[in-house]
TrEMBL record:
Alphabetic keyword roster: Signal
PANTHER family: PERIPLASMIC PHOSPHATE BINDING COMPONENT OF PHOSPHATE ABC TRANSPORTER, PHOSPHATE-BINDING PROTEIN PSTS
Record domain PBP: where: 26-251
Signal peptide: 1-24
Record's compositionally biased regions (Low complexity): 302-326
Entry protein name: Phosphate transport system substrate-binding protein
SUPFAM superfamilies, A to Z: Periplasmic binding protein-like II
């Protein structure tokens, strides 16, 4: 009897110790591009810390809006904060890793590569037939996500036009990146975007850019030009701030980075070699699109980032950008400048053609640009 009571007491004590050591559950939502790289790391973190990280990918804006409303804890985003979207500049954008923007086509498409300028001309509508880039005589169907300022779309429009809300000439609009990947598999004339981490099980072919294939090695050494940062986005005043900070710091540990590398991501680095590598890539991207040489001061600003996810100091005043540079937007809580890893992803502000207008409704909200087709319907 005494032994049974003693065993029960030990069991109760162990249960209490387990509960006391457990961490808060985290709910994460965001775009497919970012979530794919974070899901497995989240599962590893949950196992090690006896907690749960619920990852529900859908879209960038849905994730960030959920964070702003306090409905979820963390958003995963493939873009920096957007000044036109209320409240985003007050959130923490913590850079986690780098991924490649990959343009995908149907496996039957004979085109194997595009230049950065050709990609830009497709978005402009200047190239609208595959025969103009070495393919068959067929219209180019450009696929895009319909939400304004979606992560991947926002980043590529910033790269190509210096404006994340540029009114590109889109053929078909979808709800998220996953639907684009499925759509491209069914349309021999289509072209859409995904990321390197999202290519695992898709029956599509990725195009080389400037003769360079997207791999984790070509992203890591700067040869692949269309590279974007992935962020964790959260509120500095979240009730789960301590747990979120712990998770953000975990993402920069060797064990977490090994998981990301296995997903073909390049972990973010805060060191001089890393910054130099990506400023050189930014300069090459500018050169490929016919721009003028970029001032070294502008390039330097393109590669800085916050040092700690736990920093809660108010943002410092952003320095005035050099001509042609993307203005810095600092996120409260981590003092993350959007011109930091974000500007590295944004690329040069191209002089010609001028950046297109952002569509706004009567109430000042942002609307998606006009299109030629929506989903699988005919052109509109």
């Amino acid at each position: 009897m005494v032994l049974r009571r003693f065993s029960a007491l030990l069991f109760s004590f162990a249960a209490l110790s387990w509960a006391g050591a457990s961490f808060a559950q985290l709910n994460l939502r965001g775009d497919y591009a970012s979530a794919r790289g974070i899901t497995e790391v989240g599962a590893l973190y949950a196992r090690q810390h006896r907690t749960t990280v619920n990852v529900r990918p859908f879209s960038t804006n849905a994730g960030i809006d959920g964070v702003l409303k306090g409905e979820i804890d963390i958003a995963a985003a493939a873009r920096p904060p957007i000044a036109a979207r209320a409240g985003e500049s007050e959130l923490v954008f913590w850079p986690v890793a780098w991924d490649a923007v990959v343009f995908i086509v149907h496996p039957s498409n004979p085109v194997r590569q595009l230049s950065v300028q050709q990609v830009r001309d497709i978005f402009l509508g200047n190239l609208d037939n595959w025969k103009e880039v070495g393919g068959r005589d067929a219209p180019i169907d450009l696929y895009s996500v319909m939400g304004p300022y979606d992560g991947l779309e926002s980043s590529i429009r910033q790269i190509l036009f210096g404006n994340p809300g540029y009114m590109a000439k889109i053929d078909r609009l979808f709800l998220n990146q996953h639907q684009i990947e499925v759509g491209v598999q069914m349309d021999p004339d289509s072209i859409g975007m995904t990321t390197l981490a999202g290519l695992d099980k898709q029956r599509v072919r990725a195009l080389d850019i400037e003769g360079v294939a997207a791999t984790k090695d070509t992203v890591a050494d700067g040869r692949y030009l269309l590279t974007i940062p992935l962020y964790l986005v959260y509120r500095a005043d979240s009730p789960k701030a301590a747990e979120i900070t712990r998770f953000a710091e975990f993402l920069r540990t060797p064990v977490a980075e090994a998981v990301m590398v296995n997903k073909r991501l390049v972990p973010h680095r805060d060191n001089e070699d890393f910054r130099t590598l990506h400023t050189q890539r930014l300069a090459r991207l500018w050169e490929r699109m016919g721009g003028e040489p970029v001032a070294q001061a502008t390039l330097a600003r393109a590669s800085t980032s916050s040092e700690s996810p736990a920093a809660v100091a108010p943002p410092a005043e952003a320095a005035a950008p050099a001509p042609g540079a993307t203005p810095a937007v600092t996120a409260t809580g981590a003092a993350v400048a959007a011109a930091a890893p974000a500007a590295e992803a944004t690329g040069p502000a191209v002089a010609t053609p001028p950046a297109g207008p952002v569509m706004t409704a009567a109430d000042g909200s942002v609307e998606e640009p006009a299109c030629k087709r929506r989903l699988f319907s005919r052109k509109c």
